[in-house]
Structure formats: structure tokens, C-alpha cells
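Structure first, sequence second, as always.
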């Protein structure tokens, strides 16, 4: 096929560009392909990790159902050590904390929740663990430590529970004014259909009523 002068000039330019940058382009393509392959392998690895972790989690649930304390601890330890980046590790720690709490072992229950706070990969799970740990510390009369768990940022969906729990701690400390503010803050964040609104209102009424609701 014959090329006109303009086409020949374009081909010459293309050859010159390829001679100068061809290797670079090739390497970019290779790196991109390697990156894609690595990403695919990572996804496969993650899926494999999640599959294995889910099996351990099912074993943990069965151990809890059987009330096998030694197996519960062994299985949740395996989850946290072998699959710490999966959600199952934190889920397992929650389940184990509840099992320890039910058996009266508050120290071990708190340890499981602390692991989620320190090593969990989900901010939502960490926030929930702080809230639950604050409840255990309240039961243990470690009021200042409970309040520490309730400081900082929390997801919007947990704000009501955080304020309610703060109110409980302040009541235990005898700080009625702070308790009123916390209970009122919780109520202000709820709708009339919220199932715990009446309960929080009863707590507020029990300490002498609240303050003016915050303007919305």
C-alpha cells in the first residue's frame, strides 16, 4: 500500500517516538499488568483469608454454645493471631467478651474488648467496643476509666448510646448536673419512635428533670 507524503511523515515520527520511549512504554505496560496480577492475587488471598476466618468463627460460635471455655479462648486467639485484618477477628472478640461476661469473668471480657480497640481494623467496631467497655468499667465502679472510653469521636448512630452511658457514669459519680446534660443530649438526638427514649426520660426524671432541650 502506497503512503502519501503526510502519512510517511507521521510514520517516521511514530518510529522516532517509539525508539525513544518504546522501552519506557513497555515497562509501564508490564508494571501495570504485574500490578493487576498482584491485585488479583491479593483479592484471592483476602477471599481465602476470609473463608478460613469464617470457619474459625463458626467453630467459636459452637464453642460458646457448648460453653467450652478452653476452646473459646483457643479459637478466638487463633482468629486474632492468624486473621487480624478480617472482620471475623473483631467479631470473635465481641462474642468471646460476651461469653466471659456471662460467666462472670469481667477481666477477660474487658481484655477482649480492649483488643478490638487497640488492634481492630474497623472504626465502627472500635467505637462499639469502647461503648461496651465503658459499661463493664461502670459495673466495675471504675468510673473515671469509663468516662475516658466515652471521649473522642463516635459514629452518629452511637451518639445516643454514648450520651446515655455518660449519664449513667455521672450519676454513679454523684455529678447530677452533668448527668442531666448527658441524658438531655441523648433525648435531643432521638425521635419519639426511638425505643429507648422513654427509658432515658425516666432516668432524667429520676434525678430531678432536665434542662431546656437544645434547639434544632
Amino acid at each position: 500500500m502506497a503512503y502519501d507524503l503526510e502519512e510517511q511523515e507521521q510514520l517516521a515520527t511514530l518510529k522516532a517516538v517509539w525508539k525513544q520511549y518504546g522501552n519506557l512504554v513497555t515497562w509501564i505496560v508490564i508494571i501495570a499488568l504485574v500490578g493487576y496480577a498482584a491485585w488479583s492475587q491479593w483479592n484471592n488471598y483476602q477471599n481465602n483469608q476470609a473463608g478460613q476466618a469464617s470457619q474459625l468463627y463458626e467453630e467459636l460460635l459452637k464453642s460458646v454454645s457448648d460453653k467450652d471455655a478452653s476452646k473459646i479462648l483457643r479459637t478466638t486467639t487463633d482468629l486474632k493471631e492468624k486473621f487480624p485484618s478480617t472482620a471475623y477477628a473483631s467479631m470473635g472478640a465481641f462474642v468471646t467478651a460476651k461469653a466471659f461476661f456471662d460467666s462472670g469473668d469481667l477481666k477477660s471480657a474487658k481484655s477482649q474488648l480492649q483488643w478490638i480497640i487497640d488492634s481492630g481494623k474497623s472504626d465502627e467496631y472500635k467505637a462499639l467496643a469502647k461503648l461496651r467497655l465503658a459499661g463493664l468499667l461502670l459495673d466495675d465502679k471504675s468510673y473515671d476509666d469509663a468516662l475516658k472510653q466515652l471521649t473522642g469521636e463516635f459514629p452518629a448512630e452511637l451518639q445516643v448510646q454514648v450520651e446515655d452511658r455518660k449519664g449513667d457514669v455521672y450519676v454513679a459519680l454523684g455529678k447530677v448536673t452533668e448527668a442531666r446534660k448527658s441524658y438531655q443530649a441523648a433525648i435531643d438526638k432521638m425521635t419519639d419512635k426511638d425505643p429507648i427514649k422513654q427509658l432515658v426520660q425516666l432516668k432524667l426524671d429520676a434525678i430531678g428533670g432536665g434542662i431546656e432541650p437544645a434547639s434544632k
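Margin note: The chain has a mean pLDDT of 82.
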